[in-house]
Design goal:
The chain is an alpha+beta fold. The chain has 13 helices and 36 strands. Bound molecules: (2R,3S,4R,5S)-2-(hydroxymethyl)piperidine-3,4,5-triol.
């Protein structure tokens, strides 16, 4: 039987004839509605030549490639010991889902493949020890063969406050491997591995990508084997694990996406897919977070004026960050003691929460449940609850709790439940500020998921943000349990332009916390124009991270304009199609959101560094209807962009109405922005 899955312009073809594990014949552009006879001929015609000095039969690339098939590249499911072939294979298809059961004398592997209506391929393995001796599982990756034209690889590196730095390479023969050992994604999370036809960009090129939906250690690789196959593989990274008889391992889901239209084509599948199961229930409120405003300086007197200012500028949710709980004077103590610090808050958080609610805002609270300070009542009472040794390395002066210990999970649930019961908390900022630095991280990740699920089940209305020193825990499995991610600890718009752009390939903008920070960024010390900060933060889940009691009246007015703009357009900003435009000048970043009916678009044109040439390249819109006329105007984000020009392009003064075809093919001349500035444009169809 040949299985042909088709959805949204994607075809995935598996040959499950014969006794072996089904072979992957094609993953890529839609092949059309092939009749059974055509599929059969296609499968037969796919048999390759037999090369000299090789196995004596044609190489078949199965869903579980390994030595037993003659595949000497990295195997998918690797079990230590003698080479044993998978046999007694059966498949069961239910619509868009195929389950493949492969057996060998000592193990079964059940592989589930699903092609979603958006054309996203979801693949996972379950490996069970069916023998009577322990079995050592070395890896359980999902591996896809790629066409040889997919020669260029893009993945991501990064560090604190500089997450998701793209890196491109064209590997030769061998393995380009990215593995993580953080117990969370980490700031250098490879995040998405993309292999494509060299030169692919946001708007063009054929690309194949994988993402591991998992909040612990992962592995992604591209291997070019001398055998004449290039493969893309992904899965959980773990040290070899022993499965006792009857025990099984279930891999995370690998999310595999193909696009014939560059990186934007990946978002065109991933964003609608994420939105199809998104937990977000209501419009994203403008958020003020207190971290960079007051750090640990908590008191009603200090925060009362901030609440008032926040309400004045249009904030809808006020979040009390780190510093509110028993003994938390600084970042060296008190994690784990999740009761309100009565020295700072003699009557609890009630007066603050009441102020916030009376001002018409929701109240949110920061927690870091999986962590503990050695200097805490919790660590003193339960030294055995630590996952990391108290004498071992600290990281931000803290240790990790063994959440997989049911007593720890119960304690954390009870503390969080008590807070959510006592206070009307609309939102939890759930932080995680260190690597685990232990080799086996899966139990901790599974315990986190259990805890999040319990909290959500007990308090279904509460939204949760995944934060890990900024964007250190952003993946498509945690996204099923949270409503927002803290994209990065940096609010420097220059860094944010890049971080949001790349994170936004996978994660829809409504999830990406993006705040307007102080003029001088706390993380980089760089000074940025207010207009640039506002324009940058507009394109995510917008918020503010600044002590508004020290902001000038003019800047407060600007923020008021900006929050009104955001709330007016958030329907489009958060539900539209993300379209990035490639610019010949790497310093120019063009980002837009287009309504699904193509009636409207909002576009940001940002210049990050000194220009390449005296005149800027015209901005060519993308994603509009070529046959409709659009009126393009500059949007007042609250503060102007700085430019250095004797005269702006005349059209900018009053706007212009042009056909979509002209806007997309020829574009509009741009103002000569100084480095670190952006203009926001709006195109509305007549
Ligand atoms: C790290 C987070 O990313 C910050 O936003 C802030 O919440 C601090 N932790 C608080 O300790």
């Amino acid at each position: 039987m040949i299985h042909h899955f088709r959805a949204a312009g994607v075809s995935f073809v598996l040959d499950s004839r014969g006794a072996g594990v089904p072979a992957i014949l094609h993953w890529g552009r839609d092949l059309g509605a092939l009749a059974d006879a055509d599929l059969l001929t296609f499968a037969e015609a796919s048999t390759p030549a037999v090369s000299p000095s090789s196995i004596d039969s044609p190489l078949r690339f199965s869903v579980l490639p390994g030595l037993a098939d003659g595949w000497s590249g990295r195997p998918a499911v690797d079990i230590a010991g003698p080479t044993v072939a998978w046999d007694r294979v059966s498949t069961r298809r239910d619509g868009a889902v195929l389950e493949i059961s492969s057996e060998r004398v000592d193990a079964t592997a059940t592989t589930t493949l699903e092609l979603t209506p958006q054309g996203v391929l979801l693949v996972a393995h379950r490996v069970r020890n069916v023998g009577d001796r322990p079995l050592t599982l070395v890896s359980a990756d999902v591996v896809f063969p790629l066409p040889e034209r997919a020669r260029e690889v893009l993945d991501f590196a990064g560090l604190w406050s500089r997450e998701r730095r793209p890196q491109r390479t064209q590997p030769g023969h061998g393995v380009w491997l990215r593995e993580t050992r953080h117990g969370r994604g980490g700031h250098d999370d490879p995040f998405l591995m993309v292999a494509g036809v060299p030169g692919f960009s946001f708007r063009s090129g054929e690309v194949w990508s994988t993402h591991v939906a998992w909040s612990g250690d992962t592995r992604q690789f591209v291997e070019r084997a001398a055998l004449g196959r290039t493969v893309l593989g992904a899965g959980e990274r773990f040290d070899p694990v022993t499965l006792a008889p009857g025990e099984q391992y279930t891999s995370p889901t690998v999310v595999a996406t193909w696009s014939g239209e560059g990186l934007d084509g990946l978002s065109d599948r991933l964003h609608p897919w994420v939105r199809s199961w998104s937990t977000i229930r209501s419009p994203r409120p403008v958020t003020l977070n207190t971290w960079e405003a007051v750090y640990f300086d908590h008191s009603l007197e200090r925060l009362e004026p901030l609440v008032a200012r926040a309400a004045e500028v249009g904030v809808e949710r006020f979040v009390l960050d780190d510093g509110w709980f028993q003994g938390r004077l600084d970042d060296r103590r008190a994690l784990g003691d999740w009761t309100v610090d009565l020295a700072k808050w003699p009557t609890g958080l009630h007066p603050l929460a009441a102020l916030v609610e009376d001002a018409g805002m929701q109240f949110g609270l920061w927690v870091e449940p999986e962590m503990v300070s050695v200097d805490s009542d919790l660590a003193r009472a339960h030294p055995d609850w630590l996952l990391t040794s108290a004498e071992g390395l600290t990281w931000r002066w803290q240790h990790v709790l063994d959440v997989a210990n049911p007593a720890v999970e119960q304690y954390l649930f009870e503390r969080i439940d008590a807070l959510l019961t006592e206070y009307r908390i609309a939102y939890l900022k759930w932080d995680h500020n260190r690597d685990l630095l232990v080799s086996t991280t899966r139990p901790q990740v599974e315990a986190l998921y259990r805890l999040l699920d319990r909290v959500r089940a007990a308090h279904p209305g509460v939204e949760i943000e995944s934060c890990a020193s900024g964007g250190g825990r952003i993946d498509l499995e945690i996204l099923r349990r949270v409503d927002r991610v803290w994209t990065s600890d940096t609010n420097d718009p220059l860094e944010r332009q890049r971080i949001q752009r790349w994170t936004g390939i996978v994660v829809p903008p409504e999830y990406l916390g993006s705040h307007v920070g102080d003029a001088r960024a706390h993380t980089t010390g760089r000074v940025a124009e207010l207009g640039f900060r506002l324009a940058t933060a507009l394109f995510g889940h917008a918020g503010i991270e600044s002590d508004l009691t020290r902001v000038s009246a003019a800047d407060l007015a600007a923020l008021r304009t900006w929050t009104a703009l955001f709330t007016h357009h958030r329907g489009l900003l958060h539900h539209g199609r993300t379209v990035r435009v490639d610019s010949a000048d790497p310093a120019v970043m063009i980002h837009s959101v287009v309504a699904h009916d193509l009636g409207e678009a909002i576009c940001s044109y940002a210049v990050l560094e000194g220009a390449d040439a005296a005149l800027a390249e015209p901005l060519r819109f993308a994603g509009l209807d070529p046959d409709r006329r659009y009126t393009v105007t500059a949007v007042d984000v609250g503060a102007p962009a700085m430019s250095l020009q004797d005269a702006p392009p005349p059209w900018l003064v009053e706007g212009v109405t042009l056909l979509g075809s002209v806007l997309m093919q020829v574009g509009l001349p741009m103002p000569l922005l100084s480095p670190g500035n952006a203009v926001v444009l709006r195109a509305v169809a007549s």
